[in-house]
Amino acid sequence: MIKNLHINWQKIALFLLICAGLVFLTHSFWMSLGIMMLLFVADALIANYEYRRKTKKIFDDLRHEHEQDAATH
Fold first, then answer.
1. Which residue has the higher pLDDT, 21 or 12?
2. CA-based angle 52:45:17, to the nearest 5?
3. Is 5:14 a contact under the CB 8 Å cutoff?
4. CA torsion, points 65, 66, 67, 72, in degrees to nearest 10?
5. Rg of the chain over CA atoms, in angstroms?
6. Helices then strands, each counted (H, E), the chain
7. Higher model confidence: residue 62 or residue 5?
């Protein structure tokens, strides 16, 4: 069974452009690869933070609604 894979082509294009610029600036493939790996880690950490922030807000809203329902009944 194949999952639907959602690819953000704009993000891929941006990372490829940054990678090409790093190779041009550093003249070293390995240094550019290391910097790109750090950028991927930073991107993953930011995405994880955003996900946790959004889900916390949703659960806080649900808890607040539940408390209001319990108080009225």
1. 21
2. 130
3. no
4. 90
5. 21
6. 2, 0
7. 62
**Residues 19 and 32: beta-carbon distance below 8 Å:** yes
What is the residue type of 30? Answer: W
User: Whole-model pTM?
Assistant: 0.62
CA distance 24 to 63: 52
CA atoms within 13 A on the CB side of 32: 15
pLDDT in tens, 16-53: 898 889 889 989 989 988 888 898 899 889 999 999 99
CA distances from 41 to 18, 22, 23, 59 (A): 15, 17, 19, 27
Angle subtended at Cα 8 by Cα 29 and Cα 14, rounded to the nearest 5 degrees: 40
